[in-house]
Design a protein that fits this description.
heterodimer, A: alpha/beta, Rossmann fold, 2 domains, 4-stranded antiparallel sheet, 24% helix, B: alpha/beta, 7-stranded mixed sheet, 32% strand
């Protein structure tokens, strides 16, 4: 994420510094706006919340706008100005007025307290150090009402497949540019630091012309810090949460290497 | 799953199957000799490391959870003209009358702590028993993602070593061998490894004269997780030094990388 300080990221970085992939909000939407795998989960949680909802790392509003359309009292928070600008434009086009905050997930301070705070779609993995992770979790907890819930999802790498595709460009997804209509493809070249638990992505987003030729190429790079399940439990306890559940999917299935997904819910009090 | 106690029994068999693990001993002896006060080894077992420390003149005490193993070590010492305080104790919850300059847990024994509660209890108990300038040293392997996925439950011979029980001089059996076969399983989500081990004692004619079935469970730990555990246990200053493996000299190396041996040092203050 733009502006997130590298904290305790690995010292030796053999990669040239590139812009973050989250600076071009239009390209981001070309690829991710239609992602739907988690939206039902967060929408259901938001509807069931008995109080205001805060989405941390709300981006261009992929999750926030449908929740707002459902009539939920939701606010959004993100560090990236271009992403938030696009969110506002999209919401206004639907006649909605979103309440958003440009702030850092590790240190934000808002006047309200929320029944539910959500961090969808790997937003948490931009916290690159344990200190960043604890600051984020502690800040989220401080913004919850008594009995409030933090819900977020992260990933961890599956050893076998990760080794097979190490350093190899992989076509992750294909979409259509919302402005010029071109086919847009994202290639992700991932490498893993298995000790620091950082996945480095060298990203190339290509815009293809009608003949299928590359008409434009956008390069960016980002680091993501994954967390193993027992480590996540330590973090939640250290951040002061009273209880938590960690599932391997959005239907509450057990955590498994096949899913490589952690769906975390943590509550500020021990009562049910 | 048999208790961890059974894995170390009979203790003379443990001595046999780990007789080839020597490379970490100079490091441990060096740490013990450099300590300015008392030294305590937790999970000291049959004295693989503790005896060389005593022989080097370090003022070391030993604690182990397995009574049979403690009894066996106590018998080994006088035969070598050595004397030390050895007691039965649980690393998670031990009480000693004095404080130490150095407490160490060698050769992955900290991984017998199977839950976060156990890990934290051990670290806190160690910290309480350190002098204000004392240091805790824990040797752990860093997991290797490639090796973990090889724990497929298939039995494989991991080594064959000379079978020469060391406790009893007359027990030396020329030409006998011990063959160790392990089958490992791994839960990469909860970070557990289960090893089922068969030790075959093979006579000079190549016949399997006897077998022992052993099993143990480890809860492996990643580096950021260990840092978090040490922090939660009250340590504010710690470091992880990468070393080559127990059969590769246990020498300092650049890194850390996956699969390295990590020497964790944590200072009380």
């Amino acid at each position: 994420m733009e502006g997130v300080k590298p904290g305790a990221a690995p010292a030796a970085k053999p990669f040239p510094q590139r812009p973050s992939p989250f600076e071009d909000a239009t390209l981001y939407d070309a690829l991710f706006a239609e992602f739907d795998f988690d939206r039902g989960f967060y929408l259901a949680l938001a509807r069931a919340a008995r109080g205001p909802v805060l989405e941390v790392t709300c981006g261009t509003g992929r999750v926030l706008i449908p929740i707002l359309e459902a009539g939920v009292d939701i606010e959004g928070l993100d560090l990236s100005a271009p992403m938030l600008e696009r969110l506002v434009a999209k919401a206004r086009a639907r006649g909605l007025t979103p309440r958003i905050h440009r702030a850092d997930m590790r240190s934000f301070s808002l006047p309200r307290r929320y029944a539910l705070v959500i961090i969808p779609f790997n937003g948490f993995v931009h916290c690159l150090s344990t200190a960043d992770q604890l600051a984020c979790l502690t800040t989220c907890r401080a913004h919850l009402e008594p009995g409030g819930r933090l819900a977020f999802n992260t990933f961890f790498p599956e050893a076998g497949p990760s080794h097979e595709s190490e350093g190899v460009p992989v076509l992750e997804d294909e979409g259509r540019h919302p402005d010029n209509g071109r086919v847009v493809r994202i290639y992700d070249t991932r490498t893993h630091d298995w000790v620091a638990q950082v996945q480095h992505s060298e990203i190339e987003i290509q815009e293809l012309d009608r003949g299928g030729r590359v008409a434009a190429s956008h390069r960016s790079a980002t680091d993501m810090r994954w967390t193993w399940k027992p480590e996540m439990e330590l973090l939640l306890g250290a951040a002061g949460f009273a209880r938590w559940q960690i599932a391997g999917g959005f239907s509450g299935e057990p955590v498994s290497t096949e899913g490589a997904l952690l769906v975390v819910s943590a509550w500020t009090s021990s009562g049910p | 799953m048999p208790a961890v106690r059974d894995y170390y029994c009979p203790p003379d068999l443990y001595d046999v199957i780990y007789s080839d693990v020597r490379d970490d001993i100079p490091f441990c002896v060096g740490e013990a000799r450099a300590a300015r006060g008392g030294v305590l080894e937790l999970a000291c077992g049959t004295g693989r490391v503790l005896i060389p420390c005593l022989e080097a003149g370090a003022p070391i005490e030993g604690l182990d959870i397995t009574e049979v193993v403690v009894g066996y070590l106590k018998e080994k010492l006088p035969a070598r003209g050595l004397k030390a305080e050895i007691a039965v104790g649980d690393m998670r919850d031990f009480t000693r009358p004095h404080r130490y300059s150095l407490i160490f847990i060698a050769f992955n024994s900290f991984l017998h702590n199977l839950t976060a509660a156990d890990q934290l209890a051990t670290l806190r108990c160690c910290r309480e028993h350190l002098e204000s300038d004392g240091k805790l040293v824990i040797n752990l392997f860093h997991p290797s993602s490639r090796k973990l996925i090889e724990h497929d439950g298939v039995p494989r011979v991991i080594k064959t070593v000379p079978y020469a029980p060391v406790a009893v001089a007359s027990g030396a059996a020329p030409g006998w061998q011990a063959r160790v076969t392990d089958a490992g399983r791994c839960d990469p989500v909860e970070q557990h490894i289960w090893i089922t081990r068969q030790v075959e004692l093979i006579d000079p004619a190549g016949r399997v004269a006897r077998t022992h079935d052993l099993a143990f469970e480890l809860r492996y730990i990643y580096k950021p997780e260990m840092e978090l555990l040490l922090t939660l246990a009250g340590f504010k200053r710690f470091a992880a030094e990468p070393r080559t493996g127990y059969a590769a000299g246990f020498a300092p190396k650049p890194g850390p990388e996956e699969g390295d041996s990590l020497v964790w040092s944590a200072w009380k203050e």
